[in-house]
Amino acid sequence: MAAVSGVLPQVPEPRAAVFRTFSKPRPAHARRQAAATKRKCQASSEAPPAKRRSKASFLPAKKTATKETRRTLKGKAQKTFSPKKSSAGASDGNQERKLGIKTSSLFKNNPEVPELPRPVVKQVQEKVFTSDAFQALDLHPHLISTINTVLKMSSMTSVQKQSIPVLLEGRDALVRSQTGSGKTLAYCIPVVQSLQAMQSKIQRGDGPYALILVPTRELALQSFDTVQKLLKPFTWIVPGVLMGGEKRKSEKARLRKGINILISTPGRLVDHIKSTKNIHFHQIRWLILDEADRILDLGFEKDLTVILNAVNAECQERQNVLLSATLTEGVARLADISLHDPVSISVLDESHDLSSPESEAFLEASPPQATDELDGFAIPAGLEQHVVVVPSKLRLVCLAAFILQKCKFERDQKVIVFFSSCELVEFHYTLFLQTLLSDSGALAPEHLPSTSTPLKFLRLHSALEQEERTAVFQDFMHSRTGILFCTDIAARGLDLPQVTWIVQYNAPSSPAEYIHRIGRTARIGCHGSSLLVLAPSEAEYVNSLASHKINVSEMKMEDILSVLTKDDCFKGRRGGGQKSRTAGPQEIRERATVLQTVFEDYVHSSEETVSRAKKALQSFIRAYATYPRELKHIFHIRLLHLGHMAKSFGLRDAPKNLCASAMKKKKANLKRPDLQRKKTQSKQRLAEILRSEYASGMETGSAKVRKQNTRSGPSQPRGTARNPGPASAEGTD
Length: 733
Ligand SMILES: Nc1ncnc2c1ncn2[C@@H]1O[C@H](COP(=O)(O)OP(=O)(O)OP(=O)(O)O)[C@@H](O)[C@H]1O
Prior knowledge:
Residues 164-345 form the Helicase ATP-binding domain. There is one protein chain. By secondary structure, the protein is of the alpha/beta class. Among the domains are: 125-346, 3-Layer(aba) Sandwich (Rossmann fold), CATH 3.40.50.300; 379-438 and 454-568 and 587-659, Rossmann fold (3-Layer(aba) Sandwich). 38% of the residues lie in helices and 10% in strands. The strands form three sheets. The chain has a seven-stranded parallel beta sheet with strand order 5-6-4-7-8-3-9, with helices on both faces. Strands 12-13-11-14-15-10-16 form a seven-stranded parallel beta sheet, sandwiched between helices. Strand 12 (457-460), helix 17 (466-478) and strand 13 (482-486) form a beta-alpha-beta unit. Helix 7 (183-196) packs across helix 8. Bound molecules: adenosine-5'-triphosphate. Adenosine-5'-triphosphate binds next to strand 2 and helix 7.
């Protein structure tokens, strides 16, 4: 509590405690000892170190942390905000004052950046392509020529080579292969092949023969597009898509006319099952669950049960296929529900010869099972994963510097940045538009970066109107460059070409989500990179990833920030202006401070912008509180330093009472007898909020972010309606 409100005990957590591996249970006495240590240090490893200083002189700490923390949080928190007024603040360092920079101490009293653990793990690898052409399969010649000429594909991927024959035999299957390995065609090709070959030719009015469920609307559109292309020569088979956010009336009309291959998000389908007389399943031959583990997440079995019951009531005989890059226990549970004598298809590492007889034996012999997560998920070979540890105060400038480095000083970079809630996406999107792009914004025109490559910011999250959501998706899809800020609605299945970097600004809530997020790059044998941003107190997360055979290499924050020396718009008033080769840590610090000042000036330019920043910070804290239990020892709000976090939202002071009301409520609840009921209700409420992607999209009263111009002003409404949740949860937003 104290830590959350910003006043922290100053004892840094011993490094041994920070880097313990959580995968091995510790003996009781060790646990007791660790608990005692933890109580002592309770606040945080994010808390400024009392006496230690980082070996690197990059983050000097001249005053003791205690003094700094109390002064900053008590003294400054009392101040009332006055718009436009410079609040250089009592805590500004001498250096900054000399430079005339209106910002508080960015480089003081930060926690020591710990040395990252370097666990050595062998990542699971899969071979993407085979040398076999589609001609090797027993497919209709027109289908083969469509694959070759319309989709412009010649050889099969490993997962296609393994799955298509099995599915054409009529077997149920559980298919797991790495992200971007071609799973969509692995099921679409057999579906189209089997439906076009039916003896009595399919009539539109027959209704659905194949039902494909996917977790998000964008993925529904993408799969629909693939199916549509494959159906080119078979015009009598009609595909259709149902998804939240579209007009139900027109969907009803299309259902009435007839859809033979129906692609839908679960919530919308349930809505139609309950309210539309025109939906029938008596012809169903295929039931496909793409991203099956996601569909099972967050207790959405309910929707699935409604769908399965509706389908089972009209037809028993069908093929069921579940697919995902991350096969978890949940999927296996689902497999138990819906698969009949299924084949488990898993693309093995490169040492496994796909053409060998043993490989075939593997296919036949393996019953579906939950892959023990400790076996690890396969990661594309061309994907380089990085992690950077950044003290909370420096997060914002570090993100901005990284974006500038990639998108301003390098060519053809397409970057996706993942945040944990809609509010966080909106806040950062607006902030970067207004400061890094705007000519009326905080950077004076002569100080605007001399962009050779103009920066293009886009954002995608569930609180946007569907129309805008689709437009953004299409825009980013067809852009050669750009920066997409998004929640996890973009984490699953989306095939956005030529994405070069994935940034996880907020850590994901599970290794599976980590895999899916980074899987938006390095698809189908291409190269790509990812960067995970962690706070010093979160460094142990690297061990957690390693326990799932995920290897990350460290990138230094200093190297990211050094890009600021390449552009004179970040020069301090003293006018150092040294170029990158000669620029030292001091120059970099000054420039980072200038950039932070730009952000703070914008945020403090009106009460409205301050209020938005506070709301975003609140949203961050709420999302942070929802990490699963097994990650709580790494991601716990107690470990956060609110004053430092506030800085990463451009706030000069830690907002008062940000968490207090929430905490008070919690305490009061503890005394109440109906606590259990309340808890369940709020869990249900959270689940409702998080499941909105599955919802029909017909809800009333859920405010949406209005359509706006890309270079919108600060006064435009921002999406705060759907609420924030953990990163993974918003994925289903
Ligand atoms: N045989 C092939 N040859 C060339 N490209 C292919 C082939 N099969 C699929 N692709 C392309 O590879 C990309 C990734 O395919 P797809 O989206 O189906 O991957 P996925 O395995 O479903 O990924 P995710 O797990 O992220 O959902 C798409 O652009 C698709 O068009």
